[in-house]
Automatic annotation (TrEMBL):
The chain crosses the membrane at residues 30-52, 64-88, 100-124, 144-166. Keywords: Membrane, Transmembrane, Transmembrane helix. InterPro entries: Marvel, Synaptogyrin. This is Synaptogyrin. The lineage of its organism: Eukaryota, Metazoa, Spiralia, Gnathifera, Rotifera. Residues 203-224 have a biased composition (Polar residues). It is a multi-pass membrane protein. Its main location: membrane. It comes from the Eukaryota.
Amino acid sequence: MNPSMEPQAFGAGRAGSTFDPIEFIKRPQVILRIVSWVFAIIVFACIAQEGYMTGECRYNGSGACGYGIAIGIIAFLFAMLFMGLDIFFPNISNITQRKIIVLTELVVSGILTFLWFVGFCYMADQWRQEPKKDTPGWNGRNNVQAAIAFAFFSIFSWGGLIFFTFRRYRAGVSNLFSSSYEDHSAGTGQTYGGYPPAGGTGSFSQPPFTATQQAQSNYQPPAY
């Protein structure tokens, strides 16, 4: 079955569905997650490499260097975590667990979007106040400015993840009220067919205890 035609629950088909790496890579949220992961690496690398000179942060000697490095590491780890969960997601049969994972991603994406916004404003303002931008012998100006730029880009990449995750959550909640998806996490009990309609010739399954009741109704007490 085409994955796009398969019944969905929070962005994935039934548990045990075939994993298609090509379709997986084409998903907008996966692309944005990879982009966010790359941006986090760039911010971290630029600050770690050229953000300090003689032990002093080039953002006006403030804590902006530490903030940029910290948010870069955090964003990198969460991007990797949610990427792994996306790969494992189709193997989760419990609808409640799927819902919790999507809600967690939605909240984390919102927090990281806010933190990137704060980081961008913080680094840009401290760089504006930096009195030693053109210190002789220091060639890290471009890297410091690149960290600010990619912190700005990260606001939009994580903001995009909020949009797609929320759409995934809304679609998942809507599908819970439809019969197109069946949760296979619970066991299946034995069912019995109903009686055929009046005048019909179809077969039916005999409900339990019918044979016993019929035997009792045919019982004749002995005559004395």
